């Protein structure tokens, strides 16, 4: 079984600006409620409803520990190609992820929802994500090793303002064991909301991994469209 850590999304987020969880920068009039606490509570309510639970992934999926991370940190790739994490940037209203695993195959997945104070902050976040993808084709964290990290063609899903996809291969686990696992990250931005689906599993399950990533992103986006708070903040 694949061992997942708190930070599952390989290269989403990052950049050089230092942020702190829950800190909010000024936003254009009309993009969010003027009361910061109310805006954060509203954003977290959206994230809680949009992030998928095991039944949403399909039969055979169960919670993976840690199941829910709130607030979820941002991931980044340092100049020396080390994969790391940091607190959410200023302007992040909510950042929540949920981890699951498919018992039969060992496929592991994460659905993540980030709600920002305004579109501009969400755009910068996604731009940093793309920069991280291109920073290092080979990355490490402790004993873990990934290679062939690259930007891929995103799934063709309507309704997003931006779509980004990343693919790669994990070749060494945190315990130093050699593996041949592939991962796919599909990320979409709709206004100030950024949704990400991360799926990883054995290389021979590549087609199923891609399908899960696409289906998860699609389901989250459908749920986002059903949230009146999200619509008001677009």
TrEMBL record:
Recorded superkingdom: Bacteria
Region (Disordered) location: 15-34
Protein name: Sensor domain-containing protein
Source organism phylogeny: Bacteria, Bacillati, Actinomycetota, Actinomycetes, Kitasatosporales
């Amino acid at each position: 079984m694949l061992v997942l850590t708190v930070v599952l999304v390989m290269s989403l987020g990052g950049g050089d600006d230092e942020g702190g969880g829950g800190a909010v920068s000024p936003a254009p009039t009309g993009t969010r409620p003027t009361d910061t606490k109310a805006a954060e509570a509203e954003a977290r309510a959206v994230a809680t409803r949009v992030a998928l639970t095991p039944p949403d992934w399909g039969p055979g999926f169960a919670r993976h520990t840690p199941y829910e991370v709130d607030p979820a940190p941002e991931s980044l790739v340092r100049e020396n190609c080390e994969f790391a994490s940091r607190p959410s940037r200023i302007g992040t209203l909510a950042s929540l992820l949920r981890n699951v695993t498919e018992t039969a195959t060992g496929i592991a997945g994460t659905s993540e929802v980030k709600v920002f104070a305004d579109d501009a902050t969400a755009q910068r976040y996604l731009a940093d994500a793309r920069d991280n993808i291109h920073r290092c084709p080979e990355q490490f964290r402790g004993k873990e090793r990934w290679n062939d990290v690259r930007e891929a063609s995103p799934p063709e899903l309507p309704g997003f303002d931006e779509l980004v996809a990343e693919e790669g291969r994990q070749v060494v686990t945190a315990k130093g064991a050699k593996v041949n696992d592939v991962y796919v990250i599909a990320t979409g931005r709709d206004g100030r909301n950024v949704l990400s689906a991360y799926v990883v599993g054995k290389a021979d399950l590549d087609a199923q991994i891609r399908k899960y990533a696409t289906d998860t992103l699609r389901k989250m986006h459908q749920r986002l469209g059903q949230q009146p708070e999200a619509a008001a903040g677009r």
